[in-house]
Records
---
Amino acid sequence: MESSVGERESAVGHASGPKRLRPGAAALALLVVASVVAACGEPDTEILPLDDARSAGDGTVFDQTRDAFTRPLANLHGPRRDDFFLGNAVFNRGWVTAPASVADFDGLGPLFNATNCSACHFKDGRGRPPEKPDEKLLSMLVRLSVPGVSAQGGPMPEPAYGEQLQENGILGVPAEGTTRVTYVEEAGAFADGATYSLRRPSYRIEELGYGPLAPDVMMSPRTAPFMIGLGLLEAIPEETILALADPDDRDGDGISGRPNRVWDVERQRAVVGRFGWKANQPSLRQQNAGAFAGDIGITSALFPEEGCTAVQEACRVAPTGDTPQLRDLLLEQVTFYTHTLAVPGRRDVDSLEVRRGRKLFEAARCSSCHVPTFETGIVADLPEVSSQVIHPFTDLLLHDMGPDLADGRPDFEASGVEWRTAPLWGIGLVRTVNRHSYLLHDGRARGFAEAILWHGGEAARSRESFVAMPKADRDALVAFLESL
Ligand code: HEC
Ligand code: HEC
Ligand SMILES: [Ca+2]
Ligand SMILES: [Ca+2]
Ligand SMILES: [Ca+2]
């Protein structure tokens, strides 16, 4: 049959139509390689190349503990492992107000969301929304803008508050505000009569520090994504991503992914975006420098300016420490770290239920967007992520996900209804690592079923397939997601 896992699996979601699933039917047995049947004695189960537990190729780590997301790539050796741990220390390090005795780590704020990266990406995992009405946003943030396009083609900052709401300030600098989330429960039912409830969020910003927000302000609340496998995602060749795009839906399958194009500060031109919930950052280096500037208030060679707006007087005169505050070496170390965090291997790939769920995932066309398999290209200086067969379950493209998930806030070429397909590798371990099950960009979904039920737009047919499934099939699909 097929020689390359990558070719076969990439083709599955795009070229072939939905597969009819009749587990146990003789038809499926035809697909099974005879020797495999003999070996495992399961004649009714098709063995797909994707029953591959090695999500990150040679870099896969087999760890299902609370530290599952914190490991270096398994193929990272010798002094390069030491470099990983240097970057890890910068990622965990708390920044303090300038001037401080440790000048390497001062310059916090004046406005900031958190004092260290790992506050939001706890154990290199995921953030979550507040669990009580009076709890502050601890591991998520709100992006802001007003209609219009910046000189670089990006969002137009809100005049008084900029592009992000910083909910903390150093001594003497008022915080920008506090985000409050409330939810309304909405009931629904599966085709078999079983009921569910989805909670629809609404956001309000209170205790505004610098006057009212512009009346036409647009807000995009986002949780911190997990940090696993990001170097491998950056190593997917641009041509491969572009080849998956189908902006005008020429093949008529209702799915029309397209790349975001975002400003690359160092290259001074627009390039394909890959990181962030709207693929709004072009590279890990820029994403990381952007996080230092926006989330912690730490300037760097890429972003040398403190993020104070014209009306934020106390912010503009506050002590800042060295300029830039982040030495190039530290940015390099943390960027090496984000390039070399591993992905945990899959669990239970041989379970019959998981395999059935895997086929339902194909049948419901989840894999049209959550593309299972890629082969990475060659990256200079990063042999560990080069030429690897990986299973990230994303196409890194933007999709219209319908009005219910829309934030209404464009981000470079991403419209207010578009989001980047979320990578699903490792997602079954979020509960173990972060002790919660909140999913989607703003954490509104409480588990896998709700996440699927919120899918709309280009994914409406996938959602309908899920709603139509009997309970046993829904459970199998979720069991498959748990195994990732
Ligand atoms: C206040 C919480 C918060 C802090 C602190 C924070 N992040 Fe993030 N991080 C986020 C959010 C939210 C996103 C998604 C951003 C978006 O969609 O625009 C993100 C995205 C990322 C991504 C891209 C992940 C992906 O899957 O696309 C990387 C890499 C990253 N952050 C690194 C860092 C680093 C390095 C630091 C420390 C300098 C840091 N972050 C600090 C909240 C945070
Ligand atoms: C049209 C493309 C598309 C299809 C088809 C699709 N998804 Fe998604 N999926 C997305 C996007 C985009 C997101 C991120 C949406 C957001 O956060 O608002 C997402 C998010 C998710 C999440 C949450 C991930 C996270 O990190 O929070 C899960 C789980 C998921 N999808 C599973 C599925 C399953 C199962 C199916 C099939 C029943 C499916 N998806 C079909 C595009 C798609
Ligand atoms: Ca600063
Ligand atoms: Ca701000
Ligand atoms: Ca299409």
---
Amino acid sequence: MSEFEYAADLAELEATGLLGVWVEDTAVLLSLVDGEVHAINDICSHAHAHLSDGERHGPQVECLLHGARFDLRTGRHLCAPAYVDVDHYEVKVEDGKIYVRLED
Ligand code: FES
């Protein structure tokens, strides 16, 4: 089981509600939904676009390139042209710092 890795300070995420970061060599999209921190993979499953460049709609993010939407809480794809979910990561927050576990 992999360890939790530092991703960002909570204050950075609180400033925007949506934040793309790199954890090791993985692009991770952090979000705040109803006060809870979530982490999914930042690369759209349709083509290679960063979801952090997209537009947020409540608990969803819309890819800037072709409009696929994903649930920020689960990584679930919600509409075409994406037909595959993006990875969802376990998160913990300690002392104002966000940590994610990339895989288990
Ligand atoms: S790259 Fe995201 S919808 Fe096409």
---
Amino acid sequence: MKIQPSLYNAYHICKREAWLMYHQITGDQMNEFMYIGRLLSEDSFQRKKHEIMLADLPAKVDMIETRNGELMIAEIKKSSKRYENGKLQLKYYLYLLHQKGYKIKGEIKIPKEKKREIIELNDEDIAFIEKSLIEIERLVREEVPPAPKRIRDCPKCAHYEFCFS
Ligand code: SF4
């Protein structure tokens, strides 16, 4: 099973959201916060992301650049709030490329905080990602989604009404 980056990211934010996404239960389309990837990129409305294919899967990245002759994928975040999610997302991109034989570095930038970090995929990351992929496959094969559990993102989620009314 090929796990799309959007599903991988959703899984690490809310497992119920990941299940609903996989089963194409789209939630309240009128929700004012409804954006593709609304849970995944808090500032996606400010920038147009580049849509690319990574290992035959669609991905949205902020920047692809060449530095010192090396290709690099960069994610730009508005604040540290979603830093860890951004890192997970970027590592999954690097993993997909690694599976295709490319060794590419990533970078996360938070311009407002003058923060940047070079991200490289290591064996521990690969083990974590592969464990997550097995868990995601198991999750989406469940007949019903996990019960709703309130998290910080719930009020912005298109499934809010579906989950809590
Ligand atoms: S409203 Fe909350 S619990 Fe429900 S899918 Fe969205 S993030 Fe998950």
---
Amino acid sequence: MDLALYAEGLGFYTAGRSRFGPGGDFYTASHVHPLFAATIARHLEGVRRSLGSARPFSIVELGPGDGALAEGIVRSLAGAATSGGPIEYVLVDRSEPLGLRARDRVERAGRAAGIRVRSRPDAGGEGPFSGAVLANELLDAQPARRLRWTGAGWAELGVRWDGSRLVAAESRTVRPVGGGPLPPGETDGLVVEVSPSAEAFVREVADHLVRGVLLILDYGMEESELRRAHPAGTLAAVRSHRTVSDPLDRPGETDLSTFVNFTRVRAAARSAGWTEVAFDRQAEALGRWGYPELLSEAIRRTRSPEEEVRLRLGSKNLLFGFDRFRALELVPASAGPPRDGVTHEGRGAGR
Ligand SMILES: C[S@@+](CC[C@H](N)C(=O)[O-])C[C@H]1O[C@@H](n2cnc3c(N)ncnc32)[C@H](O)[C@@H]1O
């Protein structure tokens, strides 16, 4: 999965083709409606106010892809940047071609908004900083381990080259899984996915973010829900907006992803010292961050009934089309209890 997505010059994200939007392979919420970025921007502005003296306020986006979300956030923060002190937006993408393209796009928006835009190959180079780290649909795009319950124990699923093509393989030698042993399967053949790379992000960001917030938005569930709802696992292969039945077919041209195993990611966050502020459905998080007010304002600004209908339909898609998405909001434990109006302590936590 790592090679198929990220092999230099060959992977799905690294071969230089655009994968986003109608002419690509998939959409994210960032492409569905500008209110998605506007709502996140409003929340980030609240975080900035709560940090008070943190100057400049850094927003580090991990995995910005084509930069659609970053552009929307930068545009939405234009007023805030002039009135509330400097803001900088840092794009961190593992894919060099995507990172360069996103930087051009977001830099243009940054110049108009008075926000400095930078890009980096990894978050580690930022050193200790205050601000916000944002990851939308980053964790599902990380290589995952797939484990299958055999009735007597767990086996690890993998891939083998049989001399002419890639074929599925299975090993009975299973390395330990981060966050504690997997409970035995409820049924033979049950597949559970875990992603050490996804878990590593929360540890890496914990090393650098001193004050502020880490927002993770992605499709995924608790492990117990995944076991119930997806006993065959969630590995999905997609090309040109269509599901492909064989994930080993045309590696590098096919998007591969798995649902985020939030039980393991949250356990990694706890052991890395994060305090969990909220873990809830993305639609609920957007609601808390000001989506209804922004929607009402946008509706008031429409100039025709048709424009209003289009806006309402887009809004419906954003809230209900992303039903399996969760929002995980973390603050560094050393930052102390979150301030009022910013981090919503306790809401949704532990659901
Ligand atoms: C599904 S896209 C996310 C799209 C984008 N966040 C949005 O809202 O439209 C996943 C992105 O994460 C990037 N990525 C994957 N692993 C990464 C890593 N370790 N560090 C930074 N970016 C990474 C990929 O190159 C790709 O651009």
